[in-house]
Write a structure and sequence with these properties.
The complex is a heterodimer of chains A (306) and B (359).
Chain A lengths: L1 H6 L2 H34 L2 E2 L7 E2 L3 H8 L2 H32 L6 H9 L7 H11 L6 H7 L15 H11 L2 H12 L3 H9 L4 H30 L2 H6 L13 H11 L3 H29 L9
Antiparallel strand pairs in A: 1-2
Helix pairs in contact in A: 2-14, 4-8, 4-9, 4-11, 4-13, 9-11, 11-14, 13-14
Chain B lengths: L1 H6 L3 H45 L16 E3 L1 E4 L2 E10 L2 E10 L4 E5 L7 E5 L4 E2 L1 E3 L4 H9 L2 H32 L5 H10 L6 H14 L6 H4 L7 H13 L2 H9 L4 H12 L1 H17 L2 H6 L8 H12 L3 H21 L1 H5 L2 H4 L4
Helix pairs in contact in B: 2-14, 3-14, 4-8, 4-11, 9-10, 13-14
The chains are: A mainly alpha (306), B alpha+beta (359).
């Protein structure tokens, strides 16, 4: 180190330390991100089953994806259908509960705990539980619906028309995860804003639309982007609920599940890589669109001018 | 208008009315809030109760519709060597405990006194009350945990969770320190690159990583689930960096004046200051690693190497009809996260972690 001190200026020393400290990530980035990304891009132009070496096939995989694989389009549709239902519902319900939990009501911490609880146990156990709640024979839901007068409740996960909606309901049970982020956002809104609005004679409704919503847009934006990525990554719940089949009659064949089947059931790694890259481009475009739209609806406090 | 009424003699009354009306308004809002929350809480809690109660039920109780939340069982009594359900029977204004020995047409049944089985009464079953008792079948847990090698799953999960947690804490705090305390060319751009990896779908890198691990001979070992954690991840680096930024630079400077090099400053100044943030990311890592299913499913093939998540899914695939056993195993799986949640509640509900998100 002493040798270095003589040869390097202070700012150069600082740079050396900086790179020393971040070196674990740089190594990881090269080994587990950039390297694999380039490799999977290459695989996507090949036919590859892991056992024998990849064989260059040009655009074959992509052509098959877009023009010769109805399941690809179907899985995309299933994923979008899920996202189109789950994202708005999670947003509205999550924000709504966060607003309720931000009131000064007795036992507010207990309420917060209750609503957050399901999001710490997400995964296999939750899916196994809900499969049984939805079950027409032994489940909890349909007897309840019958008791409140809905005499012909759907078959939920066993009904192709309702399977995706059932997964949406399942996801709403864990709405606490986004709720807690909204709550943090709400608590960050300066109370002076509300007080000033009260003095100006704004009622609750006006305060909500003129203060709460604009101040919350960055958090809504954050949850929206993460939720979108989450929808395209959706896997565990549907794998567990359908034993990896995406049934009944492929009604829950999510994009990620179909990709998994191609890669690790049919060992068509080249095709699965092409699917992964198409997914990457979709996520990129959608996220970019959301980002591009953000100046029109996301409000940052620092932007207040004059 | 309001000014005028205030200056009138009746103005104070008007203000009082205004205050009380605000108070009642507040009261209405609070009551409505609590009511809506209570309805939501039922939706949250009922499935959990269903899980716990099913895990304690007898196999025969599973088919009851609607499934009772409390694991009731009908009381039985032995009549002529056979177990018969016991009822509270109304006979001439007096209640007797009698056993139902035979069903008859038109909803009727044959009832007898346990003491005097020869005297038979034919009564409507619907008019009588079945006697029930709560019976908790704790043995379900033993059966569920021994039907498949759950102890192995648990051991593997604990190894993966804690070793990868250690790796994550070491690597992420080092990297976060590098990004928060030094100036160097390209550092800001590298930080943006790091953040952008959050958006990268993991499927894009998964297949080459699988091939890589296979060439290393690591498939079907716990290593693929552990080793990458030692190379930092965007989420935890970001959260730790946000926290490190709030630690006053003066502390670093003081250490520097005392002759500490950056590594010493990191260990003796930054890490002690950052304890709450480290605890928070450790807890979130625990939950993530404990519940993760996707990667163990892909990297682990033989049963003795599985984690609880994969083991539970496979257990369900084999013994799906034994709902009581599946739920017992599920309770075991969700218990550690729930205990952790209650122990570390403040971390979740006040959230050092969450504060990183804003701004």
């Amino acid at each position: 180190m002493k040798l270095l001190k003589h040869r390097l200026t202070i700012s150069q020393q600082e740079a050396v330390w900086a790179y020393l400290f971040i070196s674990p990530w740089i190594l990881g980035f090269l080994i587990f991100t950039i390297g694999p990304m380039l490799a999977s891009l290459y695989y996507s132009f090949t036919s590859y089953n892991i056992i024998s070496a990849p064989v260059w096939k040009g655009l074959t995989n992509y052509i098959k994806l877009f023009s010769n694989d109805p399941l690809f389009w179907h899985s995309l549709k299933v994923t979008i259908k899920y996202a189109a239902m789950a994202l708005p519902l999670n947003l509205v319900i999550g924000l709504f509960i966060a607003i309720l939990l931000n009131q000064k009501i007795p036992g507010v911490y207990i309420w917060r705990t209750v609503f957050f609880l399901p999001s710490v146990i997400a995964g296999v156990a939750v899916a196994l539980l809900w499969v049984r709640i939805f079950n027409a024979r032994i489940g909890l839901l349909n007897p309840f619906l019958k008791s409140i007068g809905i005499l012909n409740p759907p078959g939920w996960l066993q009904d192709p028309k309702w399977a995706v909606s059932s997964l949406v309901i399942m996801s709403l049970w864990s709405v606490g995860g986004s709720m807690i982020i909204y709550l943090a956002g709400l608590q960050g809104i300066p109370t002076t804003l509300y007080e000033a609005a009260k003095i100006d004679g704004a009622n609750r409704w006006q305060r909500f639309w003129q203060i709460t919503i604009p101040m919350m847009t960055p958090v809504i934006f954050y949850n929206l982007v993460l939720g979108l990525i989450g929808a395209f990554n959706y896997f565990t719940e549907v794998y567990v609920a359908t034993s990896g089949t995406g049934g009944p009659v492929r009604s829950t064949l999510f994009y990620n599940l179909y990709l998994y089947q191609n890669a690790f059931r049919f060992f068509d790694m080249g095709y699965a890589s092409a699917m992964a890259w198409v997914l990457f481009v979709i996520v990129l475009v959608v996220t970019l669109l959301v980002f591009r739209s953000s100046p029109y609806w996301v409000f940052y406090e620092g932007e207040i001018r004059k | 208008m309001a000014d005028k009424s205030l200056s009138k003699p009746g103005g104070t009354i008007f203000i009082k009315q205004l205050i009380t009306s605000i108070k009642t308004q507040e009261l209405i809002v609070k009551t409505a809030t609590t009511l809506i929350l209570a309805i939501g809480a039922v939706f949250i809690i009922t499935p959990l109760l269903f899980m716990i109660s099913t895990s304690l039920k007898d196999r025969n109780q599973l088919r009851a519709s609607p499934p009772p939340i409390i694991p009731w069982e009908t009381k039985t009594i032995e009549i002529n060597g056979k177990e018969e359900p016991l009822y509270e029977v109304n006979l001439d204004g007096e209640t007797h405990q009698m056993a139902l020995i035979k069903n008859r047409p038109e909803g009727k049944g044959l009832f007898v006194h346990p003491d005097n089985p020869d005297e038979v009464y034919e009564l409507f079953i619907a008019d009588q009350k079945a006697l029930r008792q709560v019976e908790l079948h704790w043995e379900n847990f033993l059966e569920a945990l021994t039907k498949v090698p759950f102890d192995k799953y648990l051991m593997n999960t604990l190894i993966v969770t804690f070793v990868s947690m250690l790796g994550m804490l070491i690597s992420c705090s080092l990297v976060a320190y590098g990004f928060s305390r030094f100036r160097a060319p390209w550092l800001n751009i590298l930080f943006l690159v790091l953040l952008s990896t959050i958006m990268l779908p993991r499927q894009v890198t998964l297949i080459p990583i699988y091939v890589f691990f296979q060439k290393m001979g690591w498939i079907d070992t716990l290593l693929p689930l552990i080793v990458p954690a030692f190379f930092a991840n965007a989420y935890d680096v970001f959260l730790l960096r946000q926290f490190f930024m709030t630690v006053p630079l003066e502390l670093d400077d003081a250490a520097k004046i005392d002759g500490a090099n950056p590594i010493q400053t990191f260990f003796y100044v930054m890490l002690p200051q950052a304890r709450p943030a480290l605890v928070a990311v450790a807890i979130f890592h625990f939950l993530w690693a404990w519940n993760d299913f996707y990667e163990p499913l892909i990297f682990l093939h033989s049963r003795e190497n599985w984690t609880v998540a994969v083991g539970l899914q496979t257990f369900d695939a084999l013994y799906s009809v034994n709902t009581h056993l599946i739920m017992a195993a599920s309770v075991v799986m969700v218990l550690p996260p729930i205990i952790l949640f209650f122990l570390a509640q403040r971390v979740f509900t006040q959230g050092v972690v969450i504060s990183g998100i804003k701004g």
